[in-house]
Amino acid sequence: MQEVNFDEVLDQILARNPAYARDSYHFIREALDFTQKLISKENKGKVRHVTPAELLDGIRQHALQQFGPMAVTVFEEWGIHQCKDFGEMVFIMIESGLLAKTEKDSRDDFQDGYDFTEAFAKPFWPESKLKAEKKKAAKPAGAS
Known about the structure:
Largest sheet: none
Number of domains: 1
Strand content: under 5%
Order of helices and strands: HHHHHHH
Number of helices: 7
Shape: globular
């Protein structure tokens, strides 16, 4: 079986569907590797399929490490605005032979992942902003 050249396949993907930046596909691949390493550590070196929920968490952790408070800005520049965009990219890569899935995996698994502000911005908020946010959330509806 001939090995798939990631960048050649990526050229074909981008020619058909330029919605997401080239770098975003490389990031997804890196985030998958990152996630597989985390899972392998937890499973004493055993490699297994990464679920969509695990991949979303790995994407979040990897993005925080790579981009820090600029993660949302980077993703927006790449055309990524919500978790369903990650799912769309993953399934484009699956359909192009770059990734594999199980029968249980679907695009819908990425639909309700996480809020980008909560996942990527809030970890860098100053304590004062976090406290103000908590107070605001604790107020009863209709209270001013």
